[in-house]
Amino acid sequence: MDLTGRVAVVTGAGRGLGFAYASALAAAGASVVLNDADPDAAAGAAEQITGVGGRAVAEPGAVGPAEVATALVERAVHEYGRLDALVTNAGVLRDRILWKMSDEEFDTVVDVHLRGTFTCVRAAVRRMREQEGGGRIIVVGSPAGQRGNVGQTNYSAVKAGIVGMVRTWAMECAKAGITVNAVVPVAATAMTATIPAFAPHVEAWRDDGVPLPDWLRAGEGFGSPDDAAGLVVFLASAAAASVTGQAVGIGGDKLSLWTHPEELTVSYRDGGWSADAIAGVWASTLGRYTQQVGIPAPAGPPE
Predict the structure, then answer these.
(1) For every one of its 303 residues, what pLDDT tens digit does the chain have, with 9 covering 90 and above?
(2) Which of 21, 80, 155, 289 is catalytic?
């Protein structure tokens, strides 16, 4: 996959998935602007990429404010002359059960994930519309946003909202040749290393280079950050010119396509539905199709 001549911005690129995305884009030939709230992490990541022959610069800043988003786009244009792709990976966690979650914990996650995605995409699309060749917007979702997760009211909400924005942006940006897609990764990062079923395997992989077992890679679709990077490179490339408005899952040995919400089943009644009428038919109609919530618990290794 050749991205020579293309320019990408990756937020939250100082470590983990963001660094994997930026490294893969650079390895494919793209010039990359690496953003991170931690200036040292951004600078160190850029040095690692340039150290192996890639083109990269660091532009630190906590995403959310419009000024940070504008600075990222301006840095790409100043350094490399244009902007072809944006990957909005920056994120934080403030996990807590609903009745214990504070306003600050909720607002912090909303500001970084939801507002940060909005402001960065808005700034990037404005630039892409001014130049020839369209562009690629790649935002990062989560299984928590697709199915919900205990203790993650804030995180589930923003990740669901991000995928909702993808559908709207894909329609709004189509005439300009700008594709908009969501990546839904599952990988060994600081955010997932604490899951009890995964923790010992992540620790052995991280500390001793022990490969993740097949039941994780295939059965759970759980791999390293590098396993998720190929999808980002594909979506940033000319090969994905016709792919837009999609939520694509990636992890370990697993590649998947998430459905969009749609009516699963319907019932009709002349004159409409009273509460009693709904109760009278619920079990035999819509109630037969009620949906599960939550991310399925890991099956664990085979016995």
Answers:
(1) 999 999 999 999 999 999 999 999 999 999 999 999 999 999 999 999 999 999 999 999 999 999 999 999 999 999 999 999 999 999 999 999 999 999 999 999 999 999 999 999 999 999 999 998 899 999 999 999 999 999 999 999 999 999 999 999 999 999 999 999 999 999 887 767 777 778 888 888 888 889 998 988 998 899 999 999 999 999 999 999 999 999 999 999 999 999 999 999 999 999 999 999 999 999 999 999 999 999 888 777 766
(2) 155
Phi, psi of 179 (to 5 degrees): -90, 150
* CATH code of the domain in which 211 resides: 3.40.50.720
- Boundaries of domain holding 19: 7-257
Q: What is d(CA 290, CA 178) in angstroms, rounded to the nearest whole number? A: 36
288 falls within a domain = no
Asked if the structure places residue 65 within a domain, the reply is yes
pTM of the model: 0.94
Can you tell me the distance from the alpha carbon of 20 to that of 33, in angstroms, rounded to the nearest whole number?
Answer: 13
Q: Are 22 and 44 in contact (CB under 8 A)?
A: no
Q: Which of 201, 200, 229, 118 is nearest to 166 (CA)?
A: 118
Handedness of CA 15, 20, 26, 31 (dihedral sign): negative
SS3 of residue 236 by DSSP: helix
Residue 87 CB neighbour total at 10 angstroms: 29
Q: In 98-227, at which residue ranges do the beta strands (DSSP E only) sit?
A: 135-140, 178-185
Annotated catalytic residue 155: yes
Burial of 188 from C-beta contacts in 10 A (0-12 / 13-18 / 19+): buried
Instruction: Report how many domains make up the chain.
Output: 1
